[in-house]
Amino acid sequence: NSSLAQETDQTKGKTLSLTYDFKEAGKPMKYSLYIPTSYDKQKKTPLIVALHGLGSSASAIMRYPGFTRHAEKHGYLVVAPTGYNSRGWYGSRGTGGGRGSDPENLGELSEKDVMNVLGITRLNFNIDENRIYLMGHSMGGGGTWHLGSKYPDIWAALGPIAPAAPRDTSRLEKMTHIPVIVIQGDKDGLVRGARRWVAKMKELKMEHEYLEIEGGGHVDVAFKHFPELFAFFNAYSKAGQKDAAETPTPAPKP
After folding, report:
1. What integer is the mean pLDDT of 163-179?
2. CB 132 within 8 A of CB 155
């Protein structure tokens, strides 16, 4: 990755499949990266960290229809970690969870992978430290809740989509300053968990938006509502105040 920043002109507008040496796991680890054509190393660029769902991969979430197109349109760099493997849960279900050939500390390694990839990206690119966003689908949505609450000083806003939400909503008390957009289909079995977390955000008077999509399932909501997701992210920087960088159009109500 040391030469990645120097080669940026050749890699702009492309989704790259990269690897790094995951020392804690003792193996190379894949991640995916999208660099917008507008990227200029002299200017600070917003970053989205994207967490894939159970059984999926870093490259798969980057291929969600419209994801990189919206990143290109709005000038975001996007990075998607593996989370150790396709079932690591990013630490949202504890430090263990390994079975079969998985390491016993699978959850710990899954979380560490995300933070390593974030660190590598911040090192290689001129990232706007006030505009680092975290989003994820399904298992990745659960990871978004977990990592949002564990590292609350990093994120400008969160975007859990059809999240496999942890049981403990008290985690929200550590991140009341972070704006959150939740996108959830009402035909998805996970809708009850999403409603529970949204109710807790209301109770805590958190800045949030909840899009419950009528007729929406578990998968289709993940790629049909990028306009609302990016509009929300555009509206906030880490200061927790509406950002004047871009005035978003209000998201349509479901």
Report:
1. 95
2. yes
